[in-house]
Amino acid sequence: MASARSTQTTLAFAAVTTLFFAWGFITSLVDPLVAAVKGIFKLSDFQAQASAFAFFFAYFVVSLPAAALVARLKAVPSILFALCTMIAGCLIMLVAANVANYWLVLLGLFVLASGITILQVAANPLAAALGDPKGSHFRLVLSQTFNSVGTFLGPLLGAHLFLKGVEVKEGTVITPEIRAEALAGIDSAYFWICGLIAALAVFFFLSRRVVTEAAPPPASTAGLFSFLNSKWALLGALAIFLYVGAEVAIGTQMALFLNSNAIWGQSDAAFGVPLLGYLMGSDGVHGVSLQEAGKAVAFYWGGAMVGRLIGSVLLTRIKAHKLLALFTAIAAAMCLYVVAVGGVSAGFVALAIGLFNSIMFPVIFTLTLERSTASEESTSGLLCTAIVGGAVLPLLVGLISGAHGYAFALILPALCYVALCVFAVAAGRASVVRAEGEASSVH
Fold first, then answer.
1. Per residue in 362-416, pLDDT tens?
2. What is the DSSP letter of 359?
3. Residues 270 and 277: beta-carbon distance below 8 Å
4. Using CA atoms, how far apart are residues 116 and 27, in angstroms rounded to an integer?
5. Are 296 and 288 in contact (CB under 8 A)?
6. Which among 63, 174, 158 has a CA at the least distance from the CA of 119?
């Protein structure tokens, strides 16, 4: 009986993990999309970052309503509703690409991200809860690893489809033919994503019984706003805000950063790195084009994938708050290197920051759940709301890069990582309200 229950829980965890892959893939497409719309619609860095703002602002608007939805319903109906919302977002993106309207692009991204937000609220606690409570950190990091596989593949596909022939450097011109091809690439990408989500919805519908039986019962909505009385829920939300803001700001500017003449724009050094050079696919022209730089962004997210695999093992031996403190300190130092030194080497250092971003979200999430005196559904809803940092900080970084250059703009993410290091140290000294993975009894 116990063995059957264990198998059922494993299958449920596998089904939930497919969702992590899907939203990672879709989210990382925003990176090449920011570079593409900058050229297609002739935008400033700040205006192009509105794409990231529209996507991540959905977390601010939708997270708490999503928490109420998940708390009132079982997880599976909430997840199926989320997937349908994502399909609607993809359809808006198809229309936007065909009529070449940037405002519709922003609307499509917002609707798409609204569906992903509901998935985040439902799936993060679900992944932590499906199994032995002592392994919640491990399971969430493992799920995030599959999320990272998606984020690795997204920029490769996006750069291939969105950025062919697109250039944004001063003095370059985008012809109507290149513009039409980039818009067609956006149309094609979101058409196939729409099909992928539909297939995923069918898969999850067929898996609904397994997930429903293995999942914990839905929580009451009575404590939905209990985070207001929990210091650690609020601190955790600030940490998520800073982490996601830093990660997204670096990722969405990475292609433009690498393409700039101050970094790789006039260098072929990246093509000498075996796997990196192969995936970037040199066009034979000296220097790194915007499309080649867009493909290199995959290694920023690929670093997170590798880091989560390593982190899954490290978390079985090192306390979560200590590993978080170490990784945030290293990430801060790397950002400061880019700001202070710059040049070709700064491109490689910036890409490697992803390796140390790897365990930050899942560890901040679980550290906060353990220390929060609010209910789990309230804390989870607040933490997902705080992902709005991915909307706010990229806009600020866009302003900085427009005024002082892409390398100097990493000063803001550096400050975020320093603050996160302080959070990690404080978490190590704080008392634990509930043991790792333990269901909330505080409402």
1. 899 889 988 988 887 788 778 888 989 999 999 999 999 999 999 999 999 999 9
2. T
3. yes
4. 9
5. yes
6. 63
Q: What six digits make up the tokens of 395? A: 């806009």
Cα separation, 117 vs 90, whole angstroms: 15
CB-based contact 15:203 (threshold 8 Å): yes
Dihedral angle of Cα 105, 382, 297, 113, to the nearest 10 degrees? -20
**pTM for this prediction:** 0.84
Q: Are 290 and 166 in contact (CB under 8 A)?
A: yes
Token pair 């500017």: residue: 253
Is the CB of residue 395 less than 8 Å from the CB of residue 49? Answer: yes
| pLDDT digits 0-9 by tens, 136-159 | 666 666 777 787 788 888 898 888
Q: Are 388 and 252 in contact (CB under 8 A)?
A: no
Separation between Cα atoms, residue 389 and residue 189, nearest integer Å: 26
| C-alpha–C-alpha distance, residues 291 and 259, integer Å | 9
**Residue type for position 378:** S
The C-alpha atoms of residue 412 and residue 328 are separated, in whole angstroms, by 14
Q: Is 105:94 a contact under the CB 8 Å cutoff? A: no
DSSP output for 233-284: HHHHHHHHHHHHHHHHHHHHHHHHHHHSTTTTTT--GGGGSHHHHHHH---S
| Beta-carbon contacts of residue 316 (< 8 Å; ≥ 6 apart) | 138
Q: Residue 82 in contact with residue 119, Cβ under 8 Å? A: yes
Given a contact cutoff of 8 angstroms between Cβ atoms, the answer to whether 229 and 417 are in contact is no
CB atoms within 10 A of CB 314: 17
**Separation CA 130–CA 207 (nearest Å):** 15
Please enumerate in sequence order all residues whose Cβ is within 8 A of that of 251, keeping only pairs 6 or more positions apart, or say none.
Answer: 28, 30, 31, 297, 300, 301, 354
Two tokens at 145? 């690893």
Helices 231-259 and 360-371 pack at an angle, to 10 degrees, of 170
